Fold:
Amino acid sequence: MFQLRHVTYTATKGKGTAYLKKLALESNSSYLQKYQNICSVVPNTNLKDFEIKNEPILEYKKGSAERSQLEKALKTATAACEEIPIVVGGKEIRTDNVVYQVMPHNHSHKLSKFYYADSKIIQNAIKVAVETQKKWDRTPLNERLTIWERAADLMAGKYRQDLNAATMLGQSKTVIQAEIDSSAELIDFIRMNAYFLKECAKYQPISENIKVTKNSMRYRGIDGFVAAVSPFNFTAIGGNLAYTPALMGNAVLWKPSDTAMLSNWRIFNIMREAGVPDGVVNFVPADGPVFGDTITKSPYLAGINFTGSVPTFNRLWKQVGNNIDSYINFPRLIGECGGKNFHFVHPTADVDTVVSATIRSAFEYCGQKCSACSRMYVPESLWSKIKSGLIAEAEKLKLGDVQDTTSFTSAVIDDKAFNRITSYIEHAKNTPSLNILTGGTYSKKIGYFVTPTIVQTQDPLDRIMTEEIFGPVLTVYVYKDGDLNQAMNLVNTSTKFALTGAVFARDENFLDQALEEFKMTAGNFYINDKSTGSVVGQQPFGGGRMSGTNDKAGGPHYILRWTSPQAIKETFVPLRDITYPYMNA
Ligand code: NAD
Structure:
């Protein structure tokens, strides 16, 4: 394994460099020197091993320090309508196209003021990013890791409650939903992606005889720029989409969602404070189509890191297809999109678990998690108990202001979402095969409030069972116990999505069968657990079919989508003869 050791720089402090020197001397080569000059992601300094653990989720009990810090941060954020500029290459830009972010649970309250970049500003940001990328890609790995580690510490400490307050007020998340997202998950993304990169850089190709040839691999960023287009529903996703490509040596144009502006702006500033140089990530709020049209026209588009709805991703993909002859790379298209996530209940399931898991999955954050359960299949034999359990629990859920800690959930994100979700409720009211069991009311007078709604359907293929609603509407189809296989087939064939799914059963034979039958129905599959709540590093996330390109954010494979590795062979034995041995008769 000697030939591998020259890259196991983390093994013991100090030892990696010694090996490199020894190797360089042994092979009589300027290898080490050259490497130091040409490689960014290659060990040329000693990296300290950092411990890799998920960030603990704080509880915010009455009287706790975190609760009083959060209350302070909420007060400050509520009192101001923060002004957020466009930032390109470190320079702040303001335009006449002013937009406001409001609190969804109290939409008369403006939380932040920002500006849309026009096509010209976006083109300039591309120019800045392309230039910055060349320099940034040469930044030694150690330096980048230090910045990411510092950023994670800032997020976990000094700025934790600013991130949470911005997420609570801007995206209407309750305390715990904000803590899970803008603290724990965000910090995990930043820390763990750095760790994955460090681990990944240990791999080097085989060199059979190091005195003859040496093979190596370096991880380059991709020539050009990456466009990160993020959704409203997870602050952490914005951070991951923009900063994982950056970590890997790319320069980025980050277009945050209008309705997650303040929390995303917080991330941008923390990363700057941690040491990400100007121009590496450019903060470019813009009208979606203007941004999409401009970036897909640039020959330098190296990739799109997208999370959002299928129609938006389809549009971007088509535009890239139309412009394919003009690019200097094949742009990487990474898209995590929608879902129609299922809970499938077997007659042997534990009813209490089914009820609690389904309520949490379907209604936490108003069902606005891409993984939220939205269709459910229940055997007739368990239906009466599950039905009464679901109705009783759903009716206990308190809808309200996020600052009221007794609220289980709050408002949906905006007027567009409100209209879409309530159109499904109206459809349920007007369709004889659909029966609303609880909920079905809504109001947008103060905030965009929709009560948790449970619908029973006689038709398993009604559009309420096949289309993404992205709101607090759960539909249940009750199947006859004897029709188990047909019901399983419905899960597999009803929708084009395959994001998450869960089965509930105590029968192990059934669970084996489910693992096979449901293999392609979900990128993240749960057994006796809810379909939501993936944790970075524990359940890397992403769906198949039309739910996305399944690149498994929060896992080691994801970072590799943002590098263009280069294999290097260096030969030490001079070649002075063009003949092969067989030619010498
Ligand atoms: P969306 O598609 O409306 O918007 C996503 C982003 O795309 C926003 O920043 C938006 O401004 C931008 N955009 C819109 N049109 C654009 C265009 N033509 N070109 C470029 N950018 C454009 O999605 P959303 O409402 O913000 O988020 C909800 C969706 O995201 C749901 O479908 C949900 O399932 C999905 N989602 C998926 C995952 C996942 O990991 N699979 C995670 C979170 C959200």
Residues 1-45 have pLDDT under 50 and may be disordered. The chain has two domains: 16-211+222-337+548-568, 341-534. The pocket of nicotinamide-adenine-dinucleotide is lined by residues 229-234, 237, 255, 257, 288-289, 291-292, 307-309, 312, 315-316, 336-339, 370, 468, 470, 499, 541, 543, 547-548 (CB under 6 Å).
